[in-house]
């Protein structure tokens, strides 16, 4: 309803539309009676802008939807907290657009020719496997993941200099937000140095879960070794044991009330980072939700593997920057997810869905190298999710070690 109010209100002059007048009348008498009396006094020096600001400061959701192009509104800490509730309740409602085109939640970034590269990679892998007789088939070992030694696909970056081409190749932009070519330029995103600087003597990577209760098709309720918590621990173990990183896995629950998950987790993650200043990489690991008939799975090296998606909050809506959700590391966040996406597409085509861009911040302002990852969906199996953790860990290592992008 608020969105409808906002759309109708924008058709009128600022502060003059009948809708806004009705909202003012509705809210003034019970909540701001003194200001209402001032407004009724024709000799008063009270101005509409002051009225609107007084009203909207008390109702931050109205502030978001009815704000003017001026982004320098004054808001209180309580307003900010309430906007985090809006942020938390809105994450799963995705409306994707590309320019004026809208397409469904199963949108992929890959052209058919790139998907073909995935099939070729799988064929090359299977061709290297020795032939087995029937007896061997009965007692064969599970297929072990092999980190890709070379790229299956290479981008021609000179062909992705236009903003529209970059969006088409890499991104899904939610209808609530606008990215803009000042943020998304391929060479600018590739040039950011995402290499990890510290040593493994101290914690380097933090994995946590704003939504720790998210589960998969065959997860065991109450078992921390399954669901998204189990996926986080498996990813952490690969990064520790195979790549030598010092990883902290934080398993606290913040989503008993899902709408408050981001506001609940923020002070705790800030405290944890203050206690461990050596942490350079922050990963908020989630699980997506999809229609039952849509399964996010590919065949990678002969193994069923869940697809995953990098998610960026831009702290800006279609109206412009949301100044009270400031993110000083926005460009770094975007560069990190872009370099991860490019490496995924080149080494493991088909495993990464489009990078999703949405209006809010999602606590991505805590470190320059921050990722929010949607790992599979509710109808993926634990096996598919764990299989996806292995190429994800490999790509993380490629980017954090400076092996990708090619310099």
Summarize it:
40% of the residues lie in helices and 14% in strands. The chain is α/β, with parallel strands linked by helices and 407 residues long.
For the secondary structure, the number of strands is 13
Find the structural class using helix and strand composition.
alpha/beta
What is the succession of H and E elements?
HHHHHHEEHHHEHEHEHEEEEEEHEEH
Give the CA-CA distance, first to last residue: 50 Å
In the sheet with the most strands, the strands line up as: 2-1-3-12-9-13-6-4-5
Share of residues in strands: 5-15%
Q: Which regions contain 5 or more consecutive residues with pLDDT less than 50?
A: 1-16, 28-50, 56-78, 96-115
> What's the quaternary structure here?
single chain
How many DSSP helices? 14
The Rg value, from CA coordinates, equals 24 Å
Largest sheet: 9 strands, mixed
Q: What's the shape?
A: globular
Helix proportion of residues, in percent? 40-55%
Average predicted local confidence, pLDDT: 78
Describe this structure in words.
By secondary structure, this protein is of the alpha/beta class. The chain is built from 14 helices and 13 strands. A 9-stranded mixed β-sheet has the order 2-1-3-12-9-13-6-4-5. A two-stranded antiparallel ribbon has the order 7-8. Strand 1 and strand 2 (101-103) form a beta hairpin. It starts with a helix and ends in a 7-residue tail after the last helix. The model is unreliable at 1-16, 28-50, 56-78 and 96-115 (pLDDT under 50).
What are its keywords?
407 residues, alpha/beta, 9-stranded mixed β-sheet
Set down the secondary structure blueprint.
Layout: H1 2-9, H2 18-31, H3 33-40, H4 48-58, H5 60-66, H6 77-90, E1 96-98, E2 101-103, H7 112-127, H8 134-138, H9 163-170, E3 171-174, H10 186-191, E4 205-208, H11 227-241, E5 247-249, H12 261-275, E6 281-288, E7 297-300, E8 303-306, E9 308-313, E10 316-317, E11 320-321, H13 330-347, E12 355-358, E13 369-377, H14 382-400
Parallel strand pairs: 3-12, 4-5, 4-6, 6-13, 9-12
Antiparallel strand pairs: 1-2, 1-3, 7-8, 9-13, 10-11
Helix pairs in contact: 1-5, 2-3, 4-5, 11-14, 13-14
């Amino acid at each position: 309803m608020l969105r409808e109010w906002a759309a109708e209100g924008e058709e009128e002059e600022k502060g003059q539309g009948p809708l806004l007048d009705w909202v003012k009348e509705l809210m003034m008498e019970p909540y701001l009676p003194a200001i209402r009396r001032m407004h009724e006094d024709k000799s008063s020096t009270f101005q509409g802008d002051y009225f609107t600001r007084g009203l909207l400061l008390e109702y931050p959701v109205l502030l978001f939807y009815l704000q003017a192009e001026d982004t320098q509104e004054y808001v209180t800490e309580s307003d900010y907290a309430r906007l985090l509730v809006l942020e938390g309740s809105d994450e799963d409602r995705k409306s994707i657009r590309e320019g004026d085109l809208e397409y469904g939640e199963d949108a992929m970034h890959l052209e058919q020719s790139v998907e073909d590269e995935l099939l070729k990679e799988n064929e090359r892998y299977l061709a290297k496997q020795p032939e087995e007789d029937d007896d061997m088939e009965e007692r064969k070992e599970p297929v072990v993941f092999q980190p890709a030694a070379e790229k299956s696909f290479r981008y021609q970056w000179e062909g992705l200099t236009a903003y529209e081409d970059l969006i088409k190749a890499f991104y899904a932009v939610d209808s609530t937000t606008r990215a803009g070519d000042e943020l998304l330029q391929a060479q600018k995103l590739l040039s950011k140095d995402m290499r990890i600087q510290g040593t493994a003597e101290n914690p380097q990577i933090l994995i946590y879960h704003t939504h720790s209760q998210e589960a998969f098709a065959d997860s065991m309720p109450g078992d921390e070794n399954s669901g998204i918590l189990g996926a986080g621990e498996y990813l952490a173990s690969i990064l520790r044991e195979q790549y030598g990183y010092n990883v902290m896995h934080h398993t606290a629950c913040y989503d008993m009330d899902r709408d408050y998950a981001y506001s609940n987790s923020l002070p705790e993650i800030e405290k944890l980072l203050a206690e461990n200043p050596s942490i350079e990489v922050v990963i908020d690991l989630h699980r997506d939700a999809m229609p039952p008939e849509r399964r996010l799975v590919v065949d990678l090296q002969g193994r069923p593997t869940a697809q995953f998606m990098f998610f960026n909050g831009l702290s800006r809506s279609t109206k412009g920057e949301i100044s009270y959700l400031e993110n000083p590391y926005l460009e770094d966040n975007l560069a990190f997810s872009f370099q991860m996406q490019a490496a995924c597409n080149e080494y493991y085509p088909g495993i990464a869905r489009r990078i999703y861009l949405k209006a809010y911040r999602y606590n991505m302002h805590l470190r320059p190298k921050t990722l929010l990852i949607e790992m599979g969906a509710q109808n993926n199996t634990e096996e598919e999710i764990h299989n996806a953790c292995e190429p994800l860990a490999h790509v993380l290592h490629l980017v954090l070690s400076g092996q990708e992008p090619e310099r």
